[in-house]
Q: What sequence folds into this?
């Protein structure tokens, strides 16, 4: 299955959530790969702590592959090449965890040609033979990259795919996330132009809320009553707004609580971070774990 | 001088095995040319051959610049309606001219690449099976594309019963004192150095494809057994994870079924060491024993008095 991760605005935690979902999915025993299609800033290597490709790879990156400058994109086996000790050993029962880094200094795609779409179809087809889940990190907002994957998926009707739209829990982000899906030149608009069925595509899109601060969260214990009341009012206002914009509970696949670790550093949250060093919250790891299951659970993806 | 080729092997992207007639349609990659099918002892279908024109550097271990011009022969293979392959090879010969000739010259010699200038066969053989420099003749890219051709066929439903990596076998065949060396590199890459008596014939390509098929079967069964985590997961769960192997792989083992008589000694020597069939049988027994013990466990729980 192909899963496309997109967000309307930058800084939503799309990459860090996407990589953590992929990591949890691998721990659940599946073979997974992560494709860094964020060509403007391919930094997924940093999240996986593979220092050699922290800003993309110098040779055989995805960008070069799509431009037909190399026969095969480079693959990084995270279990073997990560610098983090906690990641360098493949846990028993875990599947393969492979990163396909972007090209260092590659830059966004400047045009969409038939050849690039053909290369993309070839790549997705081959990865789908091999991996249970391929997560594709599409750059933020409307881009040629998003158009590319929409055009590619039309050409491979038998390969299952899903979209995750990441947004933060604020007014601006809710409105933007809805706009990215339903607005002019949004996913549905462009998708139908390329030949997708609008209803079918709509059913393949779900939202993920990131950095969510629940009004009853333990972090808020020190707040004054006025602050807490105000937060609670904000939250219900946002819920109403989200409902109106089609970003409400039914279209939501999951939410990731605000975690201090992720605010300071984009990284994979391992069980060691939760249990041994206790720097990360157990709720965050549990949220990633649940999303990693829901992403392939057909019940969570029934038609709206 | 020498022959070099590369075979890519993968699981056919279909829920079940495909019938002989579907094989014919999937492999009809050139209009008007027939797909060759043999039925015994296993259904084996070969697409018509296609040529790819090349004019590029050949991989040399010494990194010296060797230019080759000619055509690559490629074809697709489906074995048992289940295992798909893309296979390409070239016969490398010295050119009698010192410049590139009109394409009609090369088209009259399908599958021959002529070397312009000096080159040593050993240097090319080492270069091709070693670590080829980027930008050189890449038979793997051609074979991969032919395998894509099969896997992307609209006649397949793409609902393969399990995910499995493709494997690549890069081979070099020369004439001389008989010897064979099969090497596993990474999880997916293998090389084969073959020295055969007498001149090269396409039967050598059949042998390489047959080896690639069986190496892929063995690799895949190993992966499935590893994924089942026998011993560390409950028996029923492990047995369930082994089922795809029983449904789709175990009946496909037919080593040397399509290898010409004069080449069978090569298969025999690989059977002695490392012993492909030996490892295969041990794995198959392990799979069947797991299923049997799990069945026994189920039977005994259902007949135990007082329990239902």
A:
């Amino acid at each position: 299955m192909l899963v496309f991760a997109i967000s309307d605005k930058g800084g939503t935690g799309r990459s860090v959530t996407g990589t953590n979902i992929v990591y949890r999915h691998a721990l659940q025993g599946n073979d997974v790969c992560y494709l860094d299609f964020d060509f403007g800033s391919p930094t997924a290597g940093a999240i996986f702590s593979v220092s050699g490709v922290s800003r993309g790879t110098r040779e055989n990156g995805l960008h070069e592959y799509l431009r037909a400058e190399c026969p095969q994109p480079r693959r990084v086996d995270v279990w073997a090449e990560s610098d983090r000790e906690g990641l360098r050993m493949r846990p028993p029962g875990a599947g393969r965890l492979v990163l396909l880094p972007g090209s260092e200094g590659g830059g966004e795609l400047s045009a969409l040609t038939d050849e690039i779409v053909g290369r993309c179809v070839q790549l997705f087809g081959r990865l789908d033979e091999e991996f249970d889940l391929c997560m594709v990190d599409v750059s933020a907002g409307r881009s040629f990259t998003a158009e590319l994957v929409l055009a590619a998926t039309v050409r491979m009707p038998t390969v299952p795919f899903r979209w995750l739209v990441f947004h933060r829990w604020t007014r601006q982000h809710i409105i933007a996330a809805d706009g990215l899906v339903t607005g002019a030149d949004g996913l549905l608009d462009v998708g139908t132009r390329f030949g997708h069925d609008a209803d079918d595509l709509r059913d393949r899109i779900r939202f993920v809320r990131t950095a969510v601060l629940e009004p009853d969260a333990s972090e808020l214990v020190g707040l004054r009553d006025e602050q807490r009341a105000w937060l609670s009012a904000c939250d219900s206002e946002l819920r109403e707004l989200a409902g109106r914009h089609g970003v409400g509970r039914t279209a939501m696949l999951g939410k990731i609580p605000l975690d201090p670790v992720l605010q300071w550093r984009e990284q994979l949250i391992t069980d060691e971070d939760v249990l041994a060093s206790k720097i990360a919250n157990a709720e965050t790891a549990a949220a990633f774990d649940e999303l990693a299951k829901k992403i392939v659970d057909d019940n969570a993806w029934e038609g709206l | 001088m020498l022959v070099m080729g590369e075979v890519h092997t993968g699981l056919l992207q279909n829920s079940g095995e495909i019938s002989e007639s579907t094989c014919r349609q999937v492999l009809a990659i050139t209009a008007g040319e027939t797909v060759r099918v043999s039925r015994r002892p296993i259904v084996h279908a070969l697409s018509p051959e296609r040529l790819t024109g090349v004019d590029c550097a050949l991989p040399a271990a010494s990194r010296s610049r060797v230019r080759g011009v000619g055509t690559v022969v490629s074809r697709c293979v489906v074995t048992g309606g289940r295992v798909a392959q893309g296979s390409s090879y070239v016969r490398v010969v010295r050119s009698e001219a010192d410049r590139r000739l009109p394409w009609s010259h090369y088209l009259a010699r399908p599958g021959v690449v002529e070397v312009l200038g000096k080159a040593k066969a050993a240097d090319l053989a080492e270069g091709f099976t070693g670590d080829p420099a980027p930008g050189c003749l890449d038979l793997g890219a051609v074979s991969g594309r032919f395998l894509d051709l099969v896997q992307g066929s609209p006649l397949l439903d793409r609902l393969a019963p399990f995910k499995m990596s493709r494997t690549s076998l890069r081979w070099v065949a020369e004439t001389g004192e008989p010897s064979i060396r099969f090497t596993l590199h990474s999880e997916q890459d293998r090389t084969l150095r073959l020295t055969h008596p007498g001149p090269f014939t396409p039967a050598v390509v059949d042998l390489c494809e047959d080896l690639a098929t069986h190496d892929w079967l063995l690799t895949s069964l190993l992966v499935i057994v590893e994924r089942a985590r026998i011993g560390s997961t409950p028996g029923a769960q492990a047995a369930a994870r082994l089922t795809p192997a029983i449904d789709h792989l175990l009946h496909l083992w037919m080593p040397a079924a399509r290898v010409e008589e004069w080449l069978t000694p090569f298969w025999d020597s690989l059977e002695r060491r490392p012993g492909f069939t030996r490892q295969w049988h041990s794995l198959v027994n392990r799979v069947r024993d797991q299923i049997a013990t799990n069945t026994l466990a189920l039977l005994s729980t259902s007949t135990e008095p007082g329990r239902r």
In short: The beta strands of chain A are 2-7, 32-37, 76-77, 97-100, 133-138, 161-168, 205-212, 252-257.
